[in-house]
Design goal:
The protein is an alpha/beta fold. The chain has two domains: 118 residues, Rossmann fold, CATH 3.40.50.2300; 91 residues, Arc Repressor Mutant, subunit A. The chain is 40% helix and 22% strand. Strands 2-1-3-4-5 form a five-stranded parallel sheet, sandwiched between helices. Strands 6-7-8-9 form a four-stranded antiparallel sheet, covered by helices on one side. It has a three-stranded antiparallel sheet with strand order 10-12-11. Strand 11 and strand 12 form a beta hairpin. Bound molecules: calcium ion. Calcium ion binds next to loops.
């Protein structure tokens, strides 16, 4: 999953980015409203963390512009501790959730996981398919109850597919959602990650749909 993290306070931004990367996200950072607006308009994010007090354009204006432009990604706003009016304005402007500063990184990550799940209509933090269980809280995967070791990129590919069972996902889409913007992207490496994943997963879990992409088997009845 790929996130946009918008925060002008550098120490906080770097700490959050490090926590999010450790948790298995690809993270783009912006330290002002104009850069945030551009990135959110042109890149495809699974969720956005948006501070409201920003230089060059405030967060609320950025959020309103995204929504006016039809950008529908989940957005969590960061508000001042006593800023109840900011929360109201933010939610009315199209925010999906908020956190008041200061907050624990764990709470931010729990809220992001929930936002990302809900965007795909998934209620449980445990994603399951053909004996594969991916625990989004721990970034852990088991197959028939046995833990399997995945590299960061293998995990990101599987995580993206497990959030979309039965949906055909193209290599380009996967590439967009597992690499941060400054990464040298190559959609051919997706094939390598899929091949490695298949060796670790039940044989028919990931289907190749010729010319279109990959599809995680949908669980019967769910
Ligand atoms: Ca700020």
């Amino acid at each position: 999953m790929r996130l946009l993290l918008v925060e002008d306070e550098q120490t906080l931004r770097k700490q959050l980015a490090a926590s999010l990367i450790r948790a298995g996200y690809a993270v783009d950072e912006a330290d002002n409203g104009q850069d945030a607006l551009f990135l959110g308009d042109t890149e495809n994010y699974d969720a956005v963390v948006l501070d409201l007090g920003l230089p060059r354009m405030d967060g609320l204006s950025v959020l309103k512009r995204w929504r006016a432009n039809g950008r529908a990604m989940p957005v969590l706003i960061l508000t001042a501790r006593d800023g109840w009016h900011e929360k109201v304005e933010g939610i009315d402007a199209g925010a999906d959730d908020y956190l008041a500063k200061p907050f624990h990184a764990e709470e931010l990550m729990a809220r992001l996981r929930a936002l990302i799940r809900r965007a795909q209509g998934l209620a449980s933090p445990l994603l399951q398919c053909r004996g594969i269980v991916l625990d989004t809280r721990e970034s852990r995967v088991t197959v028939d109850g046995w833990p399997i070791e995945l590299t960061a990129h293998e995990f990101m590919v599987l995580d993206y597919l497990m959030h979309r069972p039965g949906v055909i996902v193209s290599r380009t889409e996967l590439t967009e959602h597992i690499y941060a913007q400054d990464f040298d992207r190559d959609s051919n490496t997706i094939e390598v990650f899929i091949a490695r994943l298949r060796k670790k997963l039940p044989p028919d879990a990931i289907k190749t749909v010729r010319g279109l992409g990959y599809q995680l088997a949908a669980e019967a009845g769910g």
